[in-house]
Amino acid sequence: MSDTAPRKRTWLVLGASSSVGRAFARLAAQQGADIVLAGRDTDDLNRTAADVALRTGASVDVMPFDAADFDSHAAFAADCARRDSALDVFLLFGTMHEQDDSDADFDLVRQTVNVNYLGAVSILDRLAPILEEQGDGRVVVLSSVAGDRGRRKNYLYGSAKGALNLYLQGLRARLFEAGVSVTTVKAGFLDTDMTFGLPGLFLVASPQECAEACLRLSAKGRETAYFPKFWFLIMTIIKSIPEPIFKRLSI
Ligand SMILES: NC(=O)c1ccc[n+]([C@@H]2O[C@H](COP(=O)([O-])OP(=O)(O)OC[C@H]3O[C@@H](n4cnc5c(N)ncnc54)[C@H](OP(=O)(O)O)[C@@H]3O)[C@@H](O)[C@H]2O)c1
Description:
The chain is an alpha/beta fold.
């Protein structure tokens, strides 16, 4: 290999048992990247790894990862740093409970904040120095339109995603100096396990389309984007409703 040959890249998929994560892994592998599937359900991840490797010929590894086990994150990141290839990161783990259930059980509150916010901060804080040292790369995070405004029916989950979005703004500025892009994808409703059976969903997008958008938007180096795009309009309207009116809406 010549000195100028581009370095092999690895996409680390954090939350790879999600149908969006599986689709993303397949797409990234088709584009020539190696893949690391990270998550709690390693049986599921091993099945996905075998499938993606068979379809694409990519090298696909599985790493156990629990977003709420903060103490394990430093060793996890160190294992990632030992890989030969350059790292790109797709973070999409998350959890959502009904607001009423969380109101009645603080353990659900803790889990929501620990996974959606603190878990993301914890692992990204550990991966950031690796990306800075690398001097290039992409981070893309699947967040939610729920983080744009606190709604009566979903404000706990929304607050965790909103905090995550603010954290990502700062991380973006930090990593920009090192040539690493950070893309926040604020998704509307997706047809995944998280929303299975939930009432009141509309304009639901597929996991495949979402994965394609995440890969495309990060390749363009976009900072923040809504997926599907029309959520920008919906959220612009929602954010413009004055608080005295908004607090009376049961949404
Ligand atoms: N579905 C929607 O309408 C929608 C809309 C906007 C944003 N999002 C966001 O999109 C992302 C993907 O969600 P999804 O819709 O694909 O739902 P999903 O199928 O339930 O996926 C959630 C993923 O998070 C992982 N996860 C949960 N707790 C974890 C923990 N403690 N440690 C490691 N991984 C953990 C799950 O892994 P396990 O298999 O181990 O549980 C799973 O891979 C989430 O961040 C979600 O908030 C979803």
